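REVIEWER CHECKLIST
Item 1: Sequence provided? yes
Item 2: Single chain? yes
Item 3: Sequence as submitted:
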Amino acid sequence: MIDPAMQKVALITGVTGQDGSYLAEMLLQKGYQVHGMVRRTSSFATGRIDHLREGFANSKGLQLHYGDLGDGTGMRRIIELVKPDEVYNLAAQSHVRISFDQPEYTADVVGLGALRLLEALRDHNARRGRSARLYQAGSSEMFGKVAEVPQRETTAFHPRSPYACAKVYAHYQTINYREAYGLFACNGILFNHESPRRGENFVTRKITRSATRIKLGMQQKLALGNLEARRDWGFAGDYVEAMWLMLQQDHADDYVVATGETHSVREFLEVVFDRLKLKVEDHLVLDQRFLRPTEVDLLIGDSSRTRRLLNWEPKVKFERLAEMMVEADLELAERELRQETQ
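Item 4: Structure as written out by the authors:
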């Protein structure tokens, strides 16, 4: 049993999301006391984390607090209550296409939200004599219209969406607080990472969710936008380990987390449909509504520095990732079909 006085305390914003759920799971298994910040909404969307609320031998399970990146005062209260050793800022309006429809909201939550958190942590550390460490979730979307291939920590940013612009702002504010105030603050520049827990409005999950429903006769068509966009896709469960490793180092720094492989949306689509023995041309509809005003054509990360300094490696390969998502969504679709026929 871990001595509570020696137990590390982590606070995760965006804990109900894909990354938050995998990170909370991993930290609880490591014996952390884990707190999550959740937004107050009319529906309590905790499906990804319900299994973490109790039953861990070394802790009380995941403990939740209502909070919002738009509310600096509320975040300060949570930090004062929790007294975290590590803070992981994963909360965001993270859908790139939607950021074009909600640019002000995206900038406030993603950009200014990170600044509010940095200020709250700086104040908390100064007043309490603490040294809480921060992980700021960056994104490969910041590279946008890429200056070089592959992209690494020194590659210039050229963001091409309101979401990416807000992430660049948060990235440089994190560096500024590190340099100006000595805050242990790391930027993780994570390339695309997926899982069976991915939101259904993201393209990879939209494909596996729709394809498995098509396989069972529950729908007929799948509507997509740009099939030629190329991304560096990894497994979210692997990437949260890199987040944690960043905060265990002697010095704060910025790190690219990627597989070093790039694949098109069309390739992902074909792997999924082949796995289910379906023909893409029988079910695919191209829909202009899903195209972005400015597209990011090619992302591929060079994570060699991260692998060397953190001793980290991605474990799940592209095709296995697609298969994992298909297997989980096929099981989900079968449950839904049983419920419909009962």
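Item 5: Key structural point noted by reviewer: The longest helix spans residues 103-128.
Item 6: Recommendation: ____
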